[in-house]
């Protein structure tokens, strides 16, 4: 398959066209950003680690009946994926109070609510990806109520599969953000990536953060945290 022009470049990935109009290549970079691209750095081999972790997670989700855009991993930085029309919203699934929710609502980080919390954000860099509600998303014609219902259902299934996967490797799935898209056939599937860039992952015993918060909060050891997540995932899937 031949790689053609760049279609899009985000904070951590590039999306490339291919000579198949229904397939794209996602290239994982070593860039790290936080606070709406204000804080930036390059972390050696982060893209390689994120690609490897996302590969294992996508394959696990597919094996558990979750439809995704993932097709194959081509090399240490590139994935072949279905070309989808991505909804301009992010869905944040929260099992534990942390990050922006704790800060904005004055809550104690680490509290586990009785319910699973779902937030949606408007994917708009100029506005800083603001939180929005379902009615605002429909009013802006970003998504329909019917599509949102299916997206929430999928997000809930993903959450249950991932909680069990990480539980087995002594990791608490605190929260994660996901994106969804529509295939050419009109099916809604999981898109983007799932890695420590997009998930909060805490060691179940020590509470150590093994995710992108190590970069956000200047904790150091970002690459080592990603390496630890990959090591545990690989050991559990052998």
Question: How is this structure best described in words?
Answer:
- The protein is an alpha+beta fold and 238 residues long.
- Helix content is 31%, strand content 31%.
- It contains 6 helices and 14 strands.
- The chain has helices at 46-63, 99-105, 134-139, 145-167, 213-216, 222-237, and strands at 3-9, 13-18, 23-28, 31-34, 39-42, 70-73, 78-82, 85-86, 89-94, 117-122, 131-132, 171-182, 188-191, 199-203.
- Strands 8, 9, 10, 11, 12, 13 and 14 form a 7-stranded antiparallel beta sheet that branches. Strands 1-2-3-7-6 form a 5-stranded antiparallel beta sheet. Strands 4-5 form a two-stranded antiparallel sheet.
- Strand 6 (70-73) and strand 7 (78-82) form a beta hairpin.
- Helix 1 (46-63) packs parallel to helix 6 (222-237).
Please outline what is shown here.
With 238 residues, the chain is of the alpha+beta class. Helices cover 31% and strands 31% of the residues. It is built from six helices and 14 strands.
SSE map:
Blueprint: E1 3-9, E2 13-18, E3 23-28, E4 31-34, E5 39-42, H1 46-63, E6 70-73, E7 78-82, E8 85-86, E9 89-94, H2 99-105, E10 117-122, E11 131-132, H3 134-139, H4 145-167, E12 171-182, E13 188-191, E14 199-203, H5 213-216, H6 222-237
Antiparallel strand pairs: 1-2, 2-3, 3-7, 4-5, 6-7, 8-12, 9-10, 9-12, 10-11, 12-13, 12-14
Helix pairs in contact: 1-6
Our count of helices gives 6
Mean pLDDT score = 96
Radius of gyration: 17 Å
N-to-C order of helices and strands: EEEEEHEEEEHEEHHEEEHH
Distance between the termini: 29 Å
Which secondary-structure class do the elements indicate? alpha+beta
Low-confidence stretches: none
């Amino acid at each position: 398959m031949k790689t053609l022009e760049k279609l899009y470049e985000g904070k951590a990935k590039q999306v490339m066209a291919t000579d198949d109009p229904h397939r794209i290549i996602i290239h994982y970079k070593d860039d790290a950003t936080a606070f709406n691209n204000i804080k930036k750095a390059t972390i050696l081999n982060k893209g390689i680690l994120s690609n490897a972790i996302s590969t294992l997670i996508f394959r696990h989700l597919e094996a558990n009946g979750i439809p995704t855009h993932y097709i194959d991993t081509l090399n240490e930085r590139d994935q072949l994926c279905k070309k989808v029309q991505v909804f301009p919203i992010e869905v944040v699934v929260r099992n534990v109070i942390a990050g922006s929710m704790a800060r904005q609502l004055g809550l104690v980080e680490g509290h586990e609510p009785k319910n699973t919390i779902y937030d949606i954000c408007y994917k708009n860099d100029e506005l800083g990806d603001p939180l929005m509600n379902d009615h605002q998303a429909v009013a802006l014609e970003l998504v329909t109520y019917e599509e949102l219902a299916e997206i929430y259902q999928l997000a809930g299934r993903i959450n249950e599969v991932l909680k069990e996967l990480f539980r087995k490797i002594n990791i608490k799935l605190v929260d994660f953000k996901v994106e969804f898209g529509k295939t050419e056939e009109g099916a809604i599937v999981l898109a983007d990536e799932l890695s420590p860039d997009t998930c909060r992952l805490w060691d179940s015993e020590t509470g150590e953060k093994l995710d992108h918060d190590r970069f956000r909060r200047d904790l150091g050891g970002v690459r080592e945290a990603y390496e630890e997540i990959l090591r545990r995932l690989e050991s559990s899937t052998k």
